[in-house]
Amino acid sequence: MRYELPSLIAIAVLLATSAGAVAGCADESDEKDRARRNGTEAPPPPPGEADGEPSCDETYAGPSASRRLTRFEYDNTIRDLLGDTNAPTSDFPSEEVFYGFDNHATDRGVSLDLATQYMYAAEKIAAGVTISKIVPCDATKTDVAQCARQFITTFGKRAYRRPLEPAEIDSLLTTFDAGKAAGGFDSGVRYVIQRMLQSPSFLYRIETNTGGSTADAMIPLSGWELASRLSYFLWGTMPDDALFAAAESNALASKDKVAEQARRMLNDPRAHAVVKKFHRGWLSVDKVDTVVKSSTAYPEFSDAMIPLMKAETERFAEHVVFEGTGDLKGLFTAPYTFANDLLAPLYGVQGVTGSELRKVDLDPSQRAGIFTQLGLMSSMAKANQTSPILRGKFVRTQILCQSMPSAPAGVSLALPEPKDGQSTRERITELTKAQACTGCHTMLDPVGFGFEHYDAIGRWRTDDQGPIDATGEVFGTAIGKFDGAVELASKLAESPEAQTCVARQWFRFQAGRIESKADKCTLQQLDAGFKASGFKVQELLVALTQTDGFLYRAPSP
Predict the structure, then answer these.
(1) pTM to 2 decimals?
(2) CB 537 within 8 A of CB 327
(3) How many CA atoms lie within 13 A of 351 on its CB side?
(4) Residue 422 pairs with which residues in a beta bridge?
C-alpha cells in the first residue's frame, strides 16, 4: 500500500529546495553564484582580512552545505534505523565522483529519477518492517492516537536525527490517520515511515542552529547537529543511542566530550568500513575495475584478480590503521600486504593457498605500503606497458595535493608501442622532450620513473630492454632525489607536503568539498593535531573533530 505523496516532480523540487541545493537555478556565468551553490564560497572575511584569509585569532569556519545522504550512508542508515540489510540503493542512480570521493556536497539536488527511486525504496522498506519492533507501545491495549503519537515522536527523532517540532508531529499524525483509515494501525505506521523516508529531514543533513549568534559570527552546531556530523563522518550512518543521549544532555558542547565520543566510535567496527571507503576514494581504487591487460603481454593476469586487488588495498589500509602501526609511515612503507593463491604469485611469494586474503610479508627492498600494490600499479599502467606519466601524476595529485593541468587539446594520450632496444623510460623521455611538453612532464615523469621496477600488472622486474633505471626526483619539493619506489615512499612518509596532503584529503572527505581560503584556521589546527600525534591516522580523525570547521558553521552569505 502506497501513501500518495505529491507528484514526483514536486517531490524532486521539494527535496532540493528544502536543502538549498537546486541545480540550475544560478546563472552559470556568475562565478559567485555558482560558488555559493556548490558550497565553496567563503563566508564574509573578519575585520582586517579583506582577502578572505582569516587571522585565526578567533573562531573561523569555512562554508558548509546541506548534505544529502550518499548511497553508502542511506543503506547504513536504513540498516541502523529499521534493521533492513537489503541495500535498498542498488537501483539508485550512480553518484558523481569529485576529487576521488562520491560524497561531495556539489550538485546534491534530486533528479526525477532519484525521487522516483526514493519513493519506491520507501514503499518497499515500509512494507517489510516488523511493526512490533519499532512501535514502543501496544495499540490493542492503549489509546491508538496516543500510541501513534508516541511512535512518531520516538521514531521521528531517530529518523530525522533530532526532536520533531509539534507541528511536524501533528502533520505526521494526519498521515497516520490516512493510513489507518485505509488498512488499520499497522498501515498507518507504514504510511508514516514512507513519508518520513522521503522527507528532506531524513534525506539531508540540514544544519539550522543559530546559537544566538550575531549575523557575522561563526555559528556553533547544536548537539544534534554535532551528533550527526560525528556519526556520518566516522561511521557513515545515523547516530547511535549514546550519541543521541549526548546530544540531548548537551554533552557535545564540550570539545573534550566530542573527542571522547570520536575515540569511542573509532573502536566500533562501523569505523572500519569508513576508513576503507576513504582509501578507496583517495587512492582511486575503483579504477582497478577498468583495468584491461593484453593476454599476449601478460597471460598471468585474469579478470578474477580485479576484485581481489581492490580488496587487498582496502584490507591493508584497515589493518595499518586499526591493527598495525596506525600511522602514515605504515601506510606508505609497510613491507606486507594481503594476498591469496591468485595474488601471491605476482608478488613472488610461494606457499599461499586458498581464496581468502591473508597477511603476507614481502621483500622490504622491493615493496612499500600502498605505493607498490598490484591494484595501484595495474590501474596506473596501459594494457601492454607501464605508464610513468600516470604513476607520477598519482603521486603529485593524490599524495602531494598538487593540481596538474590536462594535456593540451589535440595531444594524443597514447604511448608509443614497446619496441626492441628501447626501454619505457627512453620512449617516454623521447616522447615528452618537446618544449611544449616539458613544463608538465618535468613534474610527472621523474616521479613516475621511480616505479619502473613494477610492470603493468604490478610484478617486480629488473630488466626493461636492459637494467631498470628507477632513479628520479620530485622537483619543486623538499623530497628531492630518490632511487626506486621504496626510497620514494620512505621520503614521502617524512615529507611535510605529503603529511599535509593526507590531512587535507581527510578534510575533503569529511567536509564534502575542496578546501578554500576560509579553511585556513581549520587546516592549521588539523595539521598541528596530526603532527602532535606522531602522524597517527586515528588521532588525525579525532583532531578533525576538534577543529573550528567541524564544530562551527559559517553564517549564510
Answers:
(1) 0.90
(2) yes
(3) 3
(4) 419
Find residue 336's DSSP bridge partners. 361
User: How many Å apart are CA 58 and CA 333, to the nearest integer?
Assistant: 39
d(CA 238, CA 557): 29
| Distance (Å, whole) CA 69 – CA 359 | 34
C-alpha span between 176 and 170 (Å, rounded): 10
Strand ranges (DSSP E) for 272-407?
Answer: 336-339, 358-361
Strand ranges (DSSP E) for 36-85? 67-68
C-alpha cell at 180: 489507518
Which three-class secondary structure state does DSSP give residue 159?
A: helix
C-alpha cell read off for 166: 509539534
Long-range contacts made by residues 41-48, C-beta under 8 angstroms, separation at least 24? 41/516, 41/557, 42/516, 42/517, 42/518, 42/554, 43/518, 43/554, 43/555, 43/557, 44/216, 44/555, 44/557, 45/518, 46/216
Which DSSP string corresponds to 435-483? HHHHHHHHHHHHHHGGGTTB-TTS-B-SBSSSB---EEEETTSS-EEEE
SS3 258: helix
Residue tagged 525504496 (cell numbers): 121
pLDDT in tens, 131-174: 999 999 999 998 999 999 999 999 999 999 999 999 999 999 99
